[in-house]
Amino acid sequence: MDRIAITGGAALQGTIPIYGAKNSALKLQAASLLAAQPLMLENMPDLADTRFMAQLLASLGVEITWIKETRTLRMAAGEIGSTIAPYDQVRKMRASFNVLGPLLARVGHATVSLPGGCAIGARPVDLHLKAFEAMGADIVIEQGYVKAAALRGLKGAEIEFPFVSVGATEHAMLAAALAHGDTVLRNVAREPEIVDLAECLNAMGARIEGAGESEIRIKGVTSLSGATHRVVADRIEAGTFAAAVGAAGGDVLLEGARAEHLGAMIAVLQQAGVAVEAEAKGLRVKRDGGRLKAVDFDTAPFPGFPTDLQAQVMAMLCFADGQSRIKETIFENRFMHAPELARLGAQIAVHGNEAVVTGVERLIGAPVMATDLRASVSLVIAGLAAQGETIVNRVYHLDRGL
Ligand code: EPZ
Predict the structure, then answer these.
(1) At residue 381, does pLDDT exceed 70?
(2) pLDDT tens, position by position, 150-174
(3) Residue 1 has pLDDT above 80, yes or no
(4) Cα(170)–Cα(147) distance, rounded to whole angstroms?
(5) Which residue of 43, 125, 156, 349 has the lowest C-beta tally within 10 Å?
């Protein structure tokens, strides 16, 4: 798919099933490397990124079966045939880096390309590597590759992260599950995806406590077994549709979405004048006429406002009455959608990590260019609520995750 043409102005109606979270699924897929028996993931999102991860796992020797009817991915890592994740694969999708910890824990060595930066920021992996070193791994970086070895196995360790990182928390959990002895991880991320990973690993026989809190305790076990796990509903996908309803108006049921995973987002929607109600089947989001109100928010690790919803809510607030102030605290370059939104007539002033959005009564459709996954969908949201036709170019970013 190369571009999307949107004729804006219609209110959104209907029911949308929310599938498993991409950012959880990718780490759960990596967890399949830890056991010889199959890991079955239900409610799998079928996206470019999760397909790509499946291909990488297949190249390492994992047998992959996609059961379309039940959206279940079966991964059987009976034998690991390769411990190398080449540059071409990690460059295309950063989450490929997550095979390093499981390979190290299961086989005792791995060679994985360093991911490098991406459009939204530098995104180093130093915290991941420090955690493995604390668990006794020898790490060298050579010609762009991380070469890691722990030939007699990883050892449990006490690790205090200097700041919260979702990826480093998950990666350390994956490795520590099979380490000798106990691991304590402090100042960890508390995202629902962390809880999901812990639940899946525990179903495989791991002994992990404290996921969802700021300290996680892991008792290493000698082997893990197969399991069946349902991937947690994607809170970012749900929040994205909610922002679209906020911008365009309408009444949509987000089936499977969980209010407890979207607290900060729901608070912003409600302040803006969008109604959100929890129902038995999910979350209903409604807006019927009337101008949105301006809202100020900062992105922050969970339970704060997710950086992965910042662009979508910025698009919504372009229509609000008054000035909204948005501070991005997680990534250094995550306002690339602002100049594209301006092409539709939005008034956004960016100063460093702060954006001030002065709401306008209407946006007018125009050609725009997507720069990353969440930025792309913010342009779709603006297009849905704008007058006339918006053409979003470079939508391959969108195929990655929604
Ligand atoms: C995950 O990235 C998500 N990706 C991101 O989603 C999400 O934006 C981010 O968490 C924050 O919620 C996946 O799960 C695949 P971090 P991650 O480690 O784990 C710095 C999307 O759109 N840092 O919590 O890479 C880092 O540069 C994507 O779906 C280090 O300095 O995020 C950032 O400033 C985008 N050293 C901050 O920490 C490290 O070793 C938080 O990053 C690790 C991170």
Answers:
(1) yes
(2) 999 999 999 999 999 999 999 999 9
(3) no
(4) 20
(5) 349
Residue after which a domain boundary falls, among 188, 219, 250: 219
pTM: 0.97
Q: How far is the CA of 11 from the centre of ligand 1 (A)?
A: 34
Q: Are residues 284 and 358 in the same domain?
A: yes
244-281 pLDDT, tens per residue? 999 999 999 999 999 999 999 999 999 999 999 999 99
What is the total count of domains within the chain? Answer: 2
E strand or H helix at 315, and its extent? helix 310-317
Average of per-residue pLDDT values in the chain: 96
Ligand 1, residue 49: give the atom nearest the CA: 15
Residue 125 alpha carbon to ligand 1 centre in Å: 9
Residue whose CA lies nearest to ligand 1 atom number 41: 165
Confidence of residue 204 (pLDDT cuts 50, 70, 90): very high
Expressed in angstroms and rounded, the spacing between residue 351 Cα and the centre of ligand 1 is 22
- Counting atoms of ligand 1 from 1, which one is nearest the CA of 401? 29
Q: Give me the active site residues, please.
A: 118
Range of the domain at 314: 3-18+233-400
Q: Which of 90, 123, 190 to mutate to test the pocket of ligand 1 (most atoms within 8 A of CB)?
A: 123
Is 52 within a domain?
Answer: yes
| 360-365 long-range Cβ contacts below 8 angstroms, 24+ apart | 360/318, 360/319, 361/291, 361/319, 362/319, 362/386, 362/387, 363/8, 363/318, 363/319, 363/387, 364/388, 365/6, 365/7, 365/8, 365/389, 365/390, 365/391
Instruction: State in Å: Cα 107 to ligand 1 middle.
Output: 26
* Per-residue confidence (pLDDT) for residue 401, from 0 to 100: 65
Same domain, 87 and 195: yes
Q: Are residues 155 and 36 in the same domain?
A: yes
Residue with tokens 């729901």: 266
Amino acid letter for position 244: A
The binding-site residues of ligand 1, defined as CB within 6 angstroms of any ligand atom, are 23, 26, 95, 121-128, 165-168, 189, 307-308, 330-331, 373-374, 401
